[in-house]
Amino acid sequence: MHKDSLKKQIAEYVIRNKEKYYRLAYSYVKNPDDALDIIQESIYKAVSNVDSLKGSDYIKVWFYRIVVNTSLDFLRKRRKIVAVEDEVLIGLDSGINDKYENFDLKEALDNLPEKYRVIVILRYFEDLKIEEIAEILSENISTIKTRLYKSLKMLRVEMNDYEEA
Asked: Where does the record place the RNA polymerase sigma factor 70 region 4 type domain (predicted)?
């Protein structure tokens, strides 16, 4: 009965917070359909692995971790496909680079390395505490603090570069 009760609590929690998890998945893949696939896969993994949940108090962090890992798995698979496509596109490249005049935070975030971007998103867009982020990413708190500081520094430098251009 305990397992069924946890499954029900997970389902209720995910339904209540579906927009948060969708935004998180979307921040990785930048595609609405792929983000929905990630959420669906995450729900499946959560229900299938309910035994790994320590208790109902941990649902939030536990499910965030599942969504992050599922998003990363998706990106790894996609990178293998994109690497082959990039080789074809390079052969077709005209050598003309597009320059975009408009700059925004979204573009700066997209340019951050993945391990820094996820921390900024979880901290400032999902409003999670440093301790929760550390648990979600299976890192220690000092590593998360260091990466957060470095990511904010990279964002400032990038934004300054655009302002000077």
From this structure: 104-155
Q: What is the value of pTM for the model shown? A: 0.66
Alpha helices by DSSP H, 17-140: 18-29, 32-48, 59-92, 105-111, 114-120, 130-137
∠ CA 70-17-143 to the nearest 5 degrees? Answer: 55
What is the per-residue pLDDT across 113-133, written as a single tens digit (0 to 9) for each?
888 988 988 888 888 899 999
38 and 29 in contact (C-beta within 8 Å)?
yes
Q: What is the DSSP letter of 103?
A: -
User: Where do the domains of the chain lie, and which CATH numbers do they carry?
Assistant: 1-97 (1.10.1740.10), 98-165 (1.10.10.10)
C-alpha angle 136-140-141 in degrees, rounded to nearest 5: 90
Nearest to 34 by CA among 72, 1, 62: 72
